[in-house]
Amino acid sequence: xxxxxxxxxxxxxxxxxxxxxxxxxxxxxxxxxxxxxxxxxxxxxxxxxxxxxxxxxxxxxxxxxxxxxxxxxxxxxxxxxxxxxxxxxxxxxxxxxxxxxxxxxxxxxxxxxxxxxxxxxxxxxxxxxxxxxxxxxxxxxxxxxxxxxxxxxxxxxxxxxxxxxxxxxxxxxxxxxxxxxxxxxxxxxxxxxxxxxxxxxxxxxxxxxxxxxxxxxxxxxxxxxxxxxxxxxxxxxxxxxxxxxxxxxxxxxxxxxxxxxxxxxxxxxxxxxxxxxxxxxxxxxxxxxxxxxxxxxxxxxxxxxxxxxxxxxxxxxxxxxxxxxxxxxxxxxxxxxxxxxxxxxxxxxxxxxxxxxxxxxxxxxxxxxxxxxxxxxxxxxxxxxxxxxxxxxxxxxxxxxxxxxxxxxxxxxxxxxxxxxxxxxxxxxxxxxxxxxxxxxxxxxxxxxxxxxxx
Length: 455
Known about the structure:
- With 455 residues, this protein is an alpha/beta fold.
- The chain folds into two domains: 3-16 and 286-454, glycerate kinase, domain 1; 23-148 and 187-229 and 266-283, Glycerate kinase, MOFRL-like N-terminal domain (Rossmann fold, 3-Layer(aba) Sandwich), CATH 3.40.50.10180.
- It has 17 helices and 15 strands.
- Helix 12 (314-331) crosses helix 13.
- It starts with a helix and ends with a strand.
- The relative contact order is 0.13.
């Protein structure tokens, strides 16, 4: 194996090690145990016992890209103790289950299946009583998959209203926290409203975090968490991105009515509905980064985790990674070679072109553009950015890798990376020049992982 091929293999192998560590099936089995009439929930280094003596039914609900794998792990532990289950997953992110039923829906923009699934899940949640235990399996992607447009006696949002709003927010460069703040306030199930439907039943909510900082109210738009945002927060985000004239009229009406106090805000901390709610984060981006670091160190790299809270424009973040790679190569700082720099988080892309790609491919393409002016200095610097869920934007790739070898192939084919970047057209570029990272659906989701290697 040539040196170049080994480094490329290391690049993809380090990423894969991080994804393997956050396999939802494995994490559920590590977190949940059953002994007689006692359910054990392990978190924060300790096991918390939950008595099942007065529990007549265990109902499983869930939403997110990792839902199928989480459900498989839970079935393996609880088996016949599960009375009924209903989990909505992204189309194609499925698996074989015995008791828990899977529903497929669209992501990142919801569709009719998302509305149907959300209605079914809320209806099942409302069946609970004091002798019911709900176990909710929540992971990233749940915001789009649980789509229940807000409706009351005078305002009725439609699916089209939510679809257009979601698309505008995705294209304007808003952060996932900002997007979810609005999603919660135009939903009948998010922002703690699922918790309201389950009350007075007890719920244990096992959460796989795809949100920077692991904020419970932001993961899948916090269906079982007190909401820290308000209608005023949502309106301010609309103004920030100058979307007032573009957001559907009925969405504006809901937000205005909320600000005026004409409709109730999402449930807040201290509400009685949360007295029976137990939210537990079982997996996060940092856990994946730790596994990636361990694998890199076994391969002989001096390794550092830069951050698990990377955010901002993807193409701008790429410039930082290029600067770090150059510093390692020329000055041996902040690490001596062979070096591996890891990071994770969730960046954004402001859409200005009409191309096809995702934030990870955009970051890799921007990194490649940084290599272009001085290709001789780019020798021996390798970069990869990938989504742990296996999907990057509306494509079948998880992300892409950038190196001088990819740049040379692009030049051989007459491809101008700057032109593709201006058109947000990263997928066709890497499809032709090489470098696409294709894993298929991983059935997990803990944001993105970036790997920078300087061997």
